[in-house]
Amino acid sequence: MTVVIEKYMSMYPFSVKEGVETAERMLSHRYPHEKSIITGELLALIFICGKPEFRLNELVFGPDKKMDHVNSWLLEKLTELKGLGCNDRLLASVYQNFWVRSEGKMFREVESLGKTRDLDVADWVRARTGFPGLFYTMCLAVMDIDEPEPILAATYEKMVVFIDDINDIASMVRDRRDGVLNSLELTESPHSRTLSAIADIFCVIQRFNPDVVEKIALFMMDYIYLHLDSPRYKDMGPSDRKICESWIALLEGYLASYKLTQKELA
Question: What is the pTM of this model?
């Protein structure tokens, strides 16, 4: 990591900590630790570059050099992941979407709409912050899966709903307290939507081999556990926590049933 990037990241220690811990919780216990470390650094940069002041802060970066430093470091880390066997086409998608979706350029519009309690506005904000798809694509690139591109194509839409909804459910109490727009406050039967996404994803992944089924199911369970265990979501309501726990049990049941069926067919 360059000195400039290190200095910039030192300004946002919580974002760095969150990125590293997210990667550790989601990846390090199942995949090579080196992949997890690099992914955590990339997530930290994504979190930082999503901040409103990203384009405005010139204490460290000159106005013409900031993006160059970030771009060079981003390419360096993605190249390291490719060298560790991560899928290069998915990494290319991460690179493209980092700049299209996570640069922070939507924040003026988002801020101006922050006090509007409208479902269309909430969904507009969710669709343009871009983290879920970027996060899922990066994690899928890191997983040891042969030809992950068709898996991404088949699961992307529903997985983005799942990732967004779990985060919004876990954030509901905190967002309500802080006056932040949370789309689930305005969504009819939000838990039903999440449950439907889980069922649809598991149905789709059964088209692929058993290794894919297990890894995607475990990814989804780990993502829910991440929100149940993280201090960031300590304010999650008891009823929402129970619902999230029930979805882990559901995924465990789906996976156990699938493995039993595969064993019977063998």
Answer: 0.86
